[in-house]
Amino acid sequence: QVQLVESGGGLVQAGVSLRLSCAASGSVFSINVMRWYRQAPGKQRELVAGITSGGTTNYADSVKGRFTISRDNAKNTVYLQMNSLKAEDTAVYYCNALTVVNSKYGGYWGQGTQVTVSS
Predict the structure, then answer these.
(1) What is the pLDDT of residues 20-48, one digit of tens each?
(2) Scanning 13, 32, 67, 71, which has the fewest C-beta atoms within 10 Å of its C-beta?
(3) What is the largest CA-CA distance in the chain?
(4) Confidence of residue 109 (pLDDT cuts 50, 70, 90)
């Protein structure tokens, strides 16, 4: 089992920056990939960024060049640095962990943190 707790959301104006954090606990050794998703009102949840245990990253086209995902393995924490925020970045942001144990995959979600960007 893995527990994920997000923090760092808030209400900000367009153009500023925010940094989200996702702290993992429990069977963190089993985590293979950490991802950030977001869900805006009336829309489906979408992948924002991901980072593997080896540090490989990927981003949605809509956030490339503005968002950076990183991880601190010593703290079992993943970050999402969000710069040049836009109104369309408004959403609930969720942390997700993909685990692999004995070739069996598992997925865990945090409770989400609200990001609201006013234009």
Answers:
(1) 999 999 998 899 999 999 999 999 999 99
(2) 13
(3) 48
(4) very high
Reported for 92-95, long-range contacts at CB under 8 A and 24+ positions apart, including other chains, are 92/38, 92/39, 92/40, 93/6, 93/9, 93/20, 93/36, 93/37, 93/38, 93/48, 94/6, 94/36, 94/37, 94/38, 94/39, 94/45, 95/4, 95/6, 95/20, 95/22, 95/34, 95/35, 95/36
- Give, for 78, the enclosing helix (H) or strand (E): strand 77-82
* Residue whose token pair is 């925020």: 85
